[in-house]
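In the design runs reported in the main text, the only information available to the sequence generator was the tokenized backbone. The following block is the verbatim input for one such run; it is reproduced so that readers can re-run the procedure and compare outputs position by position.
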């Protein structure tokens, strides 16, 4: 399996695991959105809690230039750590929600 296919599988594995978690209130689903053609992967919450509409991205990961970009993560889960434990080198994990100048100060990929 080539690097890109391997990264796709790792990203889908992580998101699928966290998509299994259900909300304990309201009528809220967690949906997986996997765009394999453009390498955009996310889970989001969608539904209703009482009279309030719920629509929030939970995790959003992209694969760009053979690196995994963490674009959004509103959970307490350390997705970067999980990717590293799955064998992804730190240099191939980009914390996309950090400003570009701050990424240089981390031990992770820059771009």
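Verbatim output:
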């Amino acid at each position: 399996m080539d690097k890109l296919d391997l990264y796709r599988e790792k990203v889908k594995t992580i998101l699928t695991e966290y998509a299994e978690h259900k909300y304990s209130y309201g009528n809220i689903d967690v949906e997986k959105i996997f765009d394999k053609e453009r390498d955009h992967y996310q889970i989001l919450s969608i539904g209703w809690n009482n009279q309030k509409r719920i629509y929030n991205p939970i995790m959003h990961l992209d694969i760009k230039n053979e690196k995994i970009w963490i674009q959004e993560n509103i959970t307490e889960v350390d997705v970067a750590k999980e990717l590293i434990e799955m064998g992804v080198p730190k240099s191939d994990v980009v914390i996309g929600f950090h400003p570009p100048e701050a990424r240089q100060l981390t031990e992770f990929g820059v771009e």
